[in-house]
Amino acid sequence: MDSVGAAPLPEGAKARRVYLSLRDQISDGRLCDGENLPGELRLAESYGVSRVTVRRALDALCESGLVEKRAGSGTTVRAKALTGRRAAMNFNTLMPQLVEMGQATTARLLSFSYSPVPDFVARAMGLEIGEKAQIATRVRMADGVPFSHLTTYVPTAIARNYSEDDLATTPLFKLLERSGVQIKEAHQSVSATLAGPDVAEALEVAVGSALLSLKRVVRDIDGNGVEYLSGLYRPDMFSLEMPLERVGDGGGRHWEPAIGQAEQGGA
After folding, report:
1. How confident is the model over 194-212, as pLDDT tens digits?
2. Which string of DSSP letters, residue by residue, matches the chain?
3. What is the four-CA torsion angle of 264, 124, 153, 199, rounded to 10 degrees?
4. 36-57: b (≥16 Cβ within 10 Å) or e
């Protein structure tokens, strides 16, 4: 399959603006699969740019697999190329879904070492400042397309129970449990960030592309930190969904997550 979304940004700030605008409209459904885009002249007038600029943006979209250009038929949106690969995660069941994803996708190990952890990781896990841990970075692939960039920190005493080869072929949760760790709980947060050069290259996106950022601290039954995960996900292949319900009475009515009431998503 072609790598959707992996094409570089077009040259020129104006062409990039047109490209990103059209890509966002395709991504969020404002431009639907099979819909014909306006002609180059009309797009040029709409964005206040030249036809050459529009052509550069359309060529980049075509290279990304998001549109198809045919002589005499104009430019057609191919949104299914994007949505067909996007993993829809229910926020309330995110952990088991990520575990399932780890079993259903492949991983490429980028780096592996035993090194001092960053101070913020040490504080989050309850480790001594400067303490060494296993630090591994992997890229997880879906149908051969880079999906997520994952950096994990595991205390040395636990990590010594599995090898570098194990980490490249087996989900970390399974390795932790196989090592005798009794996992009790985790805390995670989701935010947004921009792709730096190394991450952009690994995920096959442009430098500065928006990414979903997930931080997670996993603890055992004694409250010890057993894993810190820093995960970066391509938003064109990953989305978070949360069902809500209206609760309360009168002026106190408000929205709350409908925990446990929604089915797990996956596309």
Report:
1. 888 899 889 888 778 888 8
2. ---TT-SPPPSSHHHHHHHHHHHHHHHTTSS-TTPBPPPHHHHHHHHT--HHHHHHHHHHHHHTTSEEEETTTEEEE-THHHHTT-EEEEGGGHHHHHHHHHHHSEEEEEEEEEEEPPHHHHHHHTPPTT-EEEEEEEEEEETTEEEEEEEEEEEHHHHTTS-HHHHHHS-HHHHHHHTT--EEEEEEEEEEEE--HHHHHHHT--TT-EEEEEEEEEEETTS-EEEEEEEEE-TTSEEEE--EEEESSGGG-EEEE-TT-SPPP--
3. 70
4. ebeebeebbeebebeeebbbbb
Tokens 């699969």 sit on residue? 33
Confidence of residue 131 (pLDDT cuts 50, 70, 90): very high
What are the structure tokens assigned to 195, written together? 């792709």
* CATH of segment(s) 87-257: 3.40.1410.10
The confidence score (pLDDT) of residue 102 equals 54
Q: What is the mean pLDDT of residues 55-67?
A: 89
Nearest CA-CA partner of 152 in 232, 42, 255 = 232
In angstroms, the first-to-last Cα distance of the chain is: 17
Whole-model pTM: value is 0.65
Give the start-to-end residue ranges of the domains of the chain. Answer: 13-83, 87-257
Domain 13-83 carries which CATH code?
1.10.10.10
For residue 226, give both structure tokens: 């057993």
246 pLDDT more than 80: yes
